[in-house]
Amino acid sequence: MRGKFITFEGGDGAGKTTQISLARSYLESCGLALIVTREPGGTELAEEIRDLVLNRPTGMTPITEALLIFAARAQHTAEVILPALQRGAWVLCDRYTDASFAYQGGGRGLGDGVIGELEKIATNSLQPDLTLLLDLEVEEGILRSGARGEAVDRFESENLLFKRRVRESYLQRQSQCSERIKLIDGALTADAVHSRIVEELDSLREESHG
Questions:
Q1: pLDDT, tens only, 160-179
Q2: What pLDDT is recorded for position 149?
Q3: Radius of gyration from C-alpha coordinates of the chain
Q4: pLDDT band at 210, cuts 50/70/90?
Q5: How far, in Å, CA of 94 to CA of 41, rounded?
Q6: Rounded to an integer, what distance in angstroms lies between the CA atom of residue 20 and that of residue 94?
Q7: Residue (of 98, 142, 93, 149) closest to 119 by Cα position
Q8: For residues 142 and 146, what is the distance between their CA atoms, to the nearest angstrom?
Q9: What pLDDT shows up at residue 56?
């Protein structure tokens, strides 16, 4: 039986890392075999591209950024995600193509058409079975990120308008794909967010047994 592909999306400070960890523990307690991975990244080559995209000086054009991310995604999909799904494992991934619709399509202004074409080429239009969009006001996300005291990458250091475009694009994407993308209020407590996510995970588990 094919495994399930679950992605976590959201802007800065939305709590994805915490929620992925909680979801992993929950699904493992249910006896499921799973892997946790991330984008950009997940393979040796894709992690090198991640460093290039996130941590190198500015000056990269929007289309160069998108092509690099989709190159990493193509490798990640072929080397990690599809083999795991085919052997029946569930895959939890920190970001996937919806992030490109938000960050490169919306934030950078490339538009959905360009991202959609790259998606077809890089992933053969692979879609997650479930996407959990942790939505948070941009200003609150910035405060949360700043409170962590960690170094910021190229996206985290972007201006407020860029981050608002990213959030708007995420919400537009969710409205277009509401059956797959579930909107979760990231302003709730971590426990409350986890409870909502468990509801969605349980629904997916029931479908897989149906």
A1: 999 999 999 999 999 999 99
A2: 66
A3: 16
A4: low
A5: 10
A6: 8
A7: 98
A8: 6
A9: 83
Distance CA 150, CA 159 (A): 17
Amino acid letter at 166? V
pLDDT score at 118: 98
Residues in the chain: 210
Q: What is the 3-state secondary structure (H, E, C) of the chain?
A: CCCCEEEEEECCCCCHHHHHHHHHHHHHHCCCCEEEEECCCCCHHHHHHHHHHHHCCCCCCHHHHHHHHHHHHHHHHHHHHHHHHHCCCEEEEECCHHHHHHHHHHHCCCCHHHHHHHHHHHHCCCCCCEEEEEECCHHHHHHHHHHHCCCCCCCCCCCHHHHHHHHHHHHHHHHHCCCCEEEEECCCCHHHHHHHHHHHHHHHHHHHHC
Cα 21 to Cα 47, 64, 92, 160, 207, distances in angstroms: 20, 32, 10, 28, 23
Assess whether pLDDT exceeds 90 at residue 1: no
Place of tokens 């797959």: 180
Do residues 59 and 53 lie in contact, with contact meaning Cβ atoms separated by under 8 Å? no
Whole-number Å distance between alpha carbons of 2 and 128: 12
